[in-house]
Please model this.
Amino acid sequence: MKRGVQFGLIAATAFAALFPSSEAMAQAMHGHGSTMGMHQHDEVNMPGLRGENASPEESSDLAVMFRNFDTITREVENLPNGIRTVTWSSDPKVMEALVRHAVGMIDRVAQKDDPKIFIQSPTLKAFFMHGDEIKNEIEVTDKGLVVIQTSNNPALVTALHVHAAEVSDMVDRGMAAVHDMMMKQRRGH
Ligand code: HEM
Model:
């Protein structure tokens, strides 16, 4: 009983973080008869994908990827000094959004220009602080989008490994991966 209450509180906090304005939250909750609809909320508009410093197009590319995550496949190789990833979507529209997203975000990291997307992972903080210490190679091939990112800074190498795994989790499970990540953050592990 006590654990249930505690879970409810954590869930409510995570839910509120996904829907930062009470209006968005009310909108998201409306119509499915449950105030704790963690798995039924507004996945069409996905207001948590907006950002303080992000354009509507950037948020819309994220929504396209989340809505169609089951069309995306991905392979990650952890290198001693970074990562090599190959990400592909069977849907050309999703592939377009994916390439635009990765190119745009990697460019933002290089310029230390944080989009402050409401649901973004705290792993990204290190990138936006030290983005100029990451070397990037991006290429679109017939196997998909190939990204190689390397750094001489061991903390950034670890962050690159962690973030690549977080992207893979989102590719495997969509928004459920984001929910879990936020719940863990709030529990402090
Ligand atoms: C289905 C969801 C998502 C997919 C498929 C996706 C895909 C990718 C890919 C392929 C990359 C290139 C690096 C790599 O391959 O690991 C990337 C980088 C990046 N993504 Fe996403 N992403 C998703 C969600 C998000 C979200 C919610 C954010 C929030 C801001 C975000 C922010 C970033 C940033 C900042 C980078 C650049 C990181 C760096 O330079 O090291 N992504 N993403």
Notes: The chain has two domains: 2-41, 48-187. The first helix runs from residue 2 to 18. Helices lie at 2-18, 22-29, 56-67, 92-110, 124-130, 154-173, 175-187.
